[in-house]
Fold L,D-transpeptidase-like protein.
Amino acid sequence: MPDNKPPGVTLSIDIANQFLTLATQSGDIIARYPVSTGLNGPGQADGSGCTPVGKHYIRARIGAGQPLNTVYRGRRPTGEIYSQSLASANPGRDWILTRILWLCGCEWGRNRGPGVDTFRRFIYIHGTPDSEPMGVARSHGCIRMRNTDIVELFDRVPAGTPVSIY
């Protein structure tokens, strides 16, 4: 593990207050970031547009070394860099930018398994356009962050990091 990644970190995402906390295993807060979770509130069901709750972990880290505002489709860089002109040419597109932390549920029948599977629902912590508000639930179920914040977080958390969403 590189030296800049603290050992034994955890993430918690507070849906009601719209923030993500990075902490040590013993509970000491390292950083806190504003986020935007699902517009439809908390929930597990496929197709619900809700942010799943419960115990998760980071299953995959995508985008290391990519430029700020890199655009992703299907977890792959498109070769585009987000800009207002690109946004104007693609109204209604759900922008996944900069980095992706792909989550996997740990609780069978709650956030893992048929009809409720966080991983198969493609629930990520990811960057979003800086014009999008933080602290307001507006996503399609993912946890959106400012691009500079997701880069900082990405560099601090390894795959396997526990994530609690409540």
In short: The chain has a mean pLDDT of 95.
